Amino acid sequence: MPKIVGIEHIVLHVGDLERSRKFYDTVLGFLGFKLEWEFDRVLGWDNGETMVWIRETDAQGKKRKFRLGDIGFHHYAFELAERQHVDDLYALLKKHRVKVVDAPAEYPSYGDGYYAVFFLDPDGMKFEGVYFAEKQKRRKRRAKK
Prior knowledge:
With 145 residues, this protein is α/β, with parallel strands linked by helices. It has two domains: 7-58, 2,3-Dihydroxybiphenyl 1,2-Dioxygenase, domain 1 (Roll), CATH 3.10.180.10; 75-145, 2,3-Dihydroxybiphenyl 1,2-Dioxygenase, domain 1, CATH 3.10.180. Helix content is 27%, strand content 34%. The chain is globular.
């Protein structure tokens, strides 16, 4: 049976490539991604494990704004290595006036030590920066085996 080892890439359509480029350069750069690809109104950032691509939507796509709740993408969560990184991300988001949906908080119903911040890109697509202590513990136990 095939085994998934990670998310290779995600591709997002954006309403204004240059506006979104500034947002993604800032946020993804802070999270350790580097812009590596640029062609045909498409940009791709890579952190050595996962790529995030954006491309400008077509004329039909621009007729309607993104609405959370429609069929499709709900949000994408970046797993962070330390709880403090969630707070550091939040500080960056505030500094750059990124729309924060939910400031850093504990979410005990999601699991032990689930601490996250939720924010929106310029088109209103939702993202999350999360430190999940329970998942970190499971990962360490698996590594010892």
